[in-house]
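Morning!

As promised:
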Amino acid sequence: MSEQILLSADKVTKSFPLGNRKRHIAVNNVSLEMYRGETLALVGESGCGKSTLAKLLMRLTDADSGRVFFDGTDISALSGRALRPYRRKMQMVFQDPASSLNPRMNIRDIIAEPLEVWHICKSRKETDERVKELLDLVELKESYLSRFPHQFSGGQKQRIGIARALALNPDLLVCDESVSALDVSVQAQILNLLKRLKKDLGLSCLFISHDLSVVNFIADRVCVMRAGEICETGDVSAIYSSPTHDYTKYLLSSIPRTRGMGNQVDPGDGVMGS
Amino acid sequence: MKDTLLELKDLTVSVRQEKKEIPIVKGVDIVIPKGQIVGLVGESGCGKSMTARSIMGLLPPSAGVSGQILWHDTDGTVTDLTGLRENKLRKMCGPKIGMIFQEPMTSLNPMMRIGDQVAEVLLIHKLVKNRAEAAEKVIRLLGEVGISDPGLRYRSYPHELSGGMRQRVMIAMAVICEPDLLIADEPTTALDVTVEAQILKLIRRMCGSYHMSAIMITHNMGVVSEICDSVYVMYMGRIMERAAVSQLFERPLHPYTKGLLSSIPRIGANPEYLETIPGNIPELGKEAVGCDFCIRCSEDEHRCFFEHPQEEDAGEGHFVSCFSWKRGER
Amino acid sequence: MKKTQKQNTGSDILRRILHNKTAMISGIIILIIIALAVLAPILSDYDETSQDLLKRLMPPGNGHIFGTDELGRDVFTRIFYGTRVSLMIALIPTALAVILGAVAGICAAQFRGAADFIIMRIADVMLAIPGMLLAMVVLYTLGGSLASVIISLVLVEWGGIAVVVRTATLEIRECEFIEAAVSTGAGRLRVIIRHILPNLVPTLIVLFTLNIPSSILSESALSFLGIGIQPPQVSLGLMVGVSRQYLFQSPHLALAPACMIMILVLSFNFLGDALRDILDPDRRTL
């Protein structure tokens, strides 16, 4: 793995108005670095700000303060037209496979949309070729092209979402709880697919999840978030075998253990009040 | 059987949809012994929720039920719940059966103080003389389910509480009449891991202190392993395998159970890729001639496609519906 | 349990319409009425304006199915010519109001901020003035004619439609596929045309069908009051209005066009309700 920084955040803060003049600080003064080719996971419980942080990094919302660098460029200052080339390099796979696909578009149109937006293919035929290539990449059949989203199961829809995200050959793939809505047997398939794609295409991946076992499988490094702040960052093996922060220990001790299946974690006595 | 509380015999549930009968649950036998927590585990669409809901008579109007749901009362009488009328069944809900749902936000009335909602249950079933007595009992129970400052919280509205707190209120509501059976339908799916662990511990404790049996419906094998005594694995409306929890995790016999267990990423083991069950969960209403699992099965043989496997005894209270379980045993 | 999703592809919607009795029956009645109105000159031996003062106020029968009116004109013929005008009034202003309302609603929802505020406040003002009063003011200023009736009805109806479309658009905007489109770099116009509009179509169709009856009724009321369609043109409302004086001598003069209005309004209402069930756009917004 090359130690080249792809994406970094420098003290970003984002708050939302709560009414009665107070503000909820969703992301508080967070700095992080992500290297090219790695899978970085943001874990934490609901409301800890991990999704907001991802949106800040992708510039889907604007930060109150702080800066975001992509490939060495400060993208937090860019707007509109200047930002567009960076949009192309960062693509997202969403949580809910049902609502992330337009129900009135067929699969071909859904996957072809990014290609059309960027005028990447010269002819319709070339677009079709590329769409078929992408379908093949996510292990779906070509005959699905003219079908509509409701004709697919959750796992298949998520594959379509992945194909759409890969259409532009992005540098960074952001997966926001992309496997949490899926059944266990299907979740495993999608996890394998993501891992394989990452390896084959040399993608960097920002993986947002609340599920520590999933993160353990897919990530290289982990950022544990709590209440808008990162409380611990480290390599997967280090975080899971010897967590230093009390909250990380508490999280790890809460995972339901599957008996007789070798979940050997010693979380220490990290017990905290709720 | 002396210490059986509830028995489902050949339970079948089907739903009418656009003039077609779609079978959801296909002849399920389940026994809930007194004082035990029984897990019902499976993926979406396997019929686990419908099975539990049929006990309470909470099925959609388009659903048809056949088979027996036998309730063994403390005085030795046996009633078939499927034959009970609506109002008789409602009288069971509360004093005899309590239920917890997945989404604690929508199952509480947003316009009512939580204490009053819990007290309501007591008043409906006339288990207390007046409101004051009900309130006293509710406050004691709210404290017991781990709500701090229950006297004050009694007057809160649901939106003022976190998801975990709301689920505690739901549990209080389900157990306040000290029922014999608790049905929990994915009680921790909407919650964070840390809260999940607390809620599971709480359910376990409440079952112990009130001598309740429980049915735990979940898709999460981890939850089953944490809390249940025995477990039924469902797929496509049928029971594939049943065993004591330790048995099932140490010696899974059905290819589906094995696949399910190996699909879960585990902390500690770091494989390059996860073992998966190939294919997708088939659509409801697509009836297989043979075993429902055969098209996704890795250990299928010729007859799997033409015959339904019968349940076979694998010893030690372990039953499996598969032709090839012996071959597959590792 | 998995929720079976309603499928909204073209062929599927058509299949569901064919299976829905209410939609089919009301649809067929509407088609028959439209056919009769279009073919009126061929179907009738009489001219809608030719007078025959010798045959005034004749009861039904004698070659005149619904009798004749105060100037000896054939009522049956006039009803179909009146239906022509009433249908035109039903379809044209409603269509214009839906287009105007949809544009206003989408703009308000998509641009938010000042545009949203201004558009919605104008719509609120329109909604606050009683519809009939607004239409009467417009008609008094512009004078009664087909064109001014159309203008007044568009003004009355667009506000309500804009409010519904805005809410529906806001809901669609919340869906992740919109965010997905934005993150691939799609521009605003593309998002509106490719993603929002197709998902609004069911809502718009239902709004259109459900607004037709109120257009027909408003036109009838305005013409009845004598400020809508002016003679020698005919409309159903005008026929009822004129025959008011002969109500006791010749009740058929008022009853026949009134029944036609009722059949038209009920058919469109039933069709609208059935379409709403079939297309199932969000019930909360309708």
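Residues 1-96+179-330 of chain B form a domain with the Rossmann fold fold (CATH 3.40.50.300).

Hope this helps with the figure draft.
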